[in-house]
Design a protein that fits this description.
By secondary structure, this protein is α+β, with helices and mostly antiparallel strands. 40% of the residues lie in helices and 14% in strands.
Length: 96
């Protein structure tokens, strides 16, 4: 199994409880506007996903954040994210 990326470890002395997801509050329930500057490849990838999935950019970003959070939580517990591709085989992805 191939491995991509590197694992970012929690700060020394930080516990998994500190790394847990923050609890929602009233202010976090409100929509947030985010302005980002993407490189050419990231912008092309985003456009491809939007067209392929027939969704808007906000939906793609929200899904990406959900997946990123899931991967980070797994890594903090010593697990990881596995991608299975028929052409490239099985790869373990580590978020840096």
């Amino acid at each position: 199994m191939a491995t991509r990326g590197y694992t970012k470890q929690p700060r020394e002395g930080a516990s998994l409880a500190v790394a847990q997801s923050p609890q929602p509050d009233v202010a976090s329930d409100l929509p947030r506007r985010l302005v980002v500057e993407l490189g050419r490849q990231a912008a092309a990838d985003l456009a491809w996903i939007v067209e392929a999935e027939e969704v808007n950019k906000t939906t793609v970003v929200n899904r990406a954040i959900q997946l990123y959070k899931l991967a980070m939580e797994a890594q903090l517990k010593g697990g990881g994210l596995i991608i299975e591709d028929p052409d490239r085989g099985v790869e373990r992805v580590r978020i840096m």
